[in-house]
Amino acid sequence: MKKSNIIYASIVGAIILAVILYFSLRHTEGDGHVHTDGETHTEESHSDEKEPTTIKEVELNEAQFKASSIELGTFSDKNLSEVIKANGYTKLPPQNQADVSVFTTGIVKTINVMEGQRVSKGQTIATIESPEFTKIQEAYLTSKSNLEYLKLEFERQKTLSDEEVNSKKVFQKTKSDYEIERARFNSLQKQLNTLHISGNGNTTATVPVIAPISGNITEIYIKIGSNDRNCSRCISITTNMQSI
Q: Where are the domains of the chain?
């Protein structure tokens, strides 16, 4: 009986020892540690790890930058190389269209442009000749001279009236004549400005036809030598800078 108990205890002890050794060996292989002489040493394995990649940068000094002919640019508008097909229409706003007009009778002396030609605002595109232009200038110069005289007379009569030397009636008559002549002078001056004629004393029978806007000549309705009364539409100009 005692002998069988000893055998049974030996078998159980062997089984327990085998289990302990089994789990000890699995622990040693799993964590990559090597145990010798009762001491534990750890060692990390880096054989399977990859070295991190680094970004390589190239630096140039000012001399190298100039020698390499490197140019820096910005965003810019360029024409597309491809054609985009679409349905629609374009329309010019009213301020991009103009009809050049002359509001007095005259004969077309010169035409300085052609259809399709580009013109600038203020450019002379034709000239008109008429004796009416000289009459307006003569009337302007006469009115200017009269206005200077009446202004002096008005100031003199005003002084006399303030001092009660002459009657109020004489002063009122002088004042009325002065104001009438001033209104006439201003009217003639506006007519000359409309015709682009200066009132410097040099009379001329030819007036320039000025382009009111910059653009392209689309239509010419006059001819050299034509006599159009109140040419309300001599030349048409359009610009497509703001087409919609």
A: 95-129+206-244, 131-204
